[in-house]
Write a structure and sequence with these properties.
Blueprint lengths: L2 H8 L2 H4 L4 H6 L1 H7 L6 H6 L15 H23 L17 H13 L27 E9 L9 E6 L12 H4 L6 E3 L1 H13 L5 E5 L6 H7 L9 E3 L7 H7 L5 E2 L8 H8 L4 H14 L5 E5 L5 H15 L4 E5 L7 H4 L13 H14 L8
Parallel strand pairs: 2-4, 4-5, 5-6, 7-8
Antiparallel strand pairs: 1-2, 1-3
Helix pairs in contact: 6-7, 7-10, 9-10, 14-16
């Protein structure tokens, strides 16, 4: 059976969604990479060479490496713009590239960020390469709980080549994936080469993207980025994250992710601490979303509507999106159900010990319509 026919039968909206003008406009780059009209960003990064007069850059200090990274980013942006505007033959990116390139600089920086660890804003500063484990529960070894073609993601992403990593920087009391997010050894060990092989298999099976998720992928950034050294498929890369990463980690991802699928859970810091045990949630996530948006990243923001949190979370989240990142798609999600600690200790979390009511969802949708949020094509 033809792939498109199969996808239409299983998820007809995965094809019809592209008839929506807003989806085509907002996800222009992603669509063209998905159709192999453009090379993915990480392939372009591999073709940006480190200047020949810069030798032994792997011995640079962290500051020197980031300066080199910024210099190479300027070259990357110039080439990326030419690709986007059709001013360069994309077949150039199917040719051999130097092993001394922008991606390799990112790999070196990522390893430095793990030891001591400052990949997320908890900034544990533990030496994960020495076997110490951060709040995420991980040392330097990454584990994958599952990898498959996901038919349940947002319509433009289906089928999505999802790779579920274990471990997470959050301690969400309602986590639906708590068995892998809070049990980091519930998975198979993967090194960069094995991870690249998993990605290639998903691509060969018809995935529209490689979807790094979890748990949370941020804590596995060093392995994920290094895996791209061994991966050359023309397929979009997708970062499916809680968006609590540090600016240093985000800097490494900006040039290699073709589409972003961030969670935006809470409209204030207090709910972020109460329900996910993280400090400064709202400030960090909005900062990171602004950076990605300002860099031209294509984004589908997920907001899970929590019962009794319409006024404190849903409305502030939607208002912030409308004011700061209007050119994004939003999935206003009604899938919340009590899980994990909410089920075990419902007396502690009475406000979220039930599913959202119909009137709460209608209030969320009505408010989104009032603000001009673009959510209906993908929800």
């Amino acid at each position: 059976m033809d792939e498109d026919v199969y996808y239409y039968l299983v998820r007809p909206d995965s094809l019809t969604v592209w008839g929506d003008e807003n989806v085509r406009r907002i996800l222009t780059w992603y669509y063209r990479v998905m159709k192999q009209i453009y090379p993915p960003r990480y392939i372009i990064a591999k073709h940006i060479e480190v200047p020949r007069d810069i030798r032994d850059w792997r011995s640079f200090s962290a500051d020197e490496l980031f300066n080199l990274h910024r210099e190479l980013r300027r070259s990357f942006r110039d080439v990326w713009n030419k690709v986007y505007n059709g001013d360069i033959d994309v077949n150039e990116f199917r040719r051999e590239y130097s092993s001394n390139n922008f991606l390799e600089v990112k790999i070196e920086i990522a390893k430095r960020l793990v030891n001591p660890c400052r990949l997320c804003e908890r900034r544990c500063m533990v030496n994960r390469y020495d076997g110490h484990r951060g709040v995420c529960g991980l040392d330097s070894v990454s584990r994958v709980a599952s990898a498959f073609l996901h038919m349940g993601e947002e319509a433009p992403l289906v089928p999505s080549g999802t790779i579920f990593f274990t471990g997470c920087s959050f301690k969400c009391v309602f986590c639906q994936n708590w068995d892998i997010s809070q049990r980091p050894f519930n998975g198979e060990i993967v090194d960069p080469q094995y991870l690249a092989r998993i990605s290639h298999i998903l691509a060969s099976k018809g995935a529209r993207n490689i979807n790094y998720v979890g748990g949370n992928p941020d804590q596995n950034l060093h392995v994920i980025i290094e895996s791209l050294r061994y991966f050359d498929d023309w397929i979009p890369l997708l970062w499916n994250s809680n968006m609590y990463m540090t600016i240093e980690a985000l800097e490494l991802l900006l040039d290699i992710m073709d589409i972003w699928l961030p969670d935006f859970k809470y409209g204030n810091n207090e709910c972020g601490f109460k329900l996910s045990r993280v400090h400064n949630y709202y400030n960090v996530v909005t900062r990171n979303l602004k950076i990605v948006y300002g860099y031209g990243g294509e984004i589908i923001i997920r907001h899970l509507v929590l019962p009794n949190h319409i006024e404190c979370c849903t409305k502030p989240v939607l208002r912030w999106i409308a004011d700061n990142t209007p050119n994004v798609l939003v999935n206003i999600m009604d899938q919340y159900r009590p899980e994990h600690m909410v089920v075990r200790e419902p007396w502690r979390f009475k406000d979220i010990a039930r599913r959202p009511k119909y009137k709460e969802m209608e209030e969320a949708y009505s408010y989104a319509d009032k603000l001009g949020i673009i959510y209906r094509p993908i929800s």
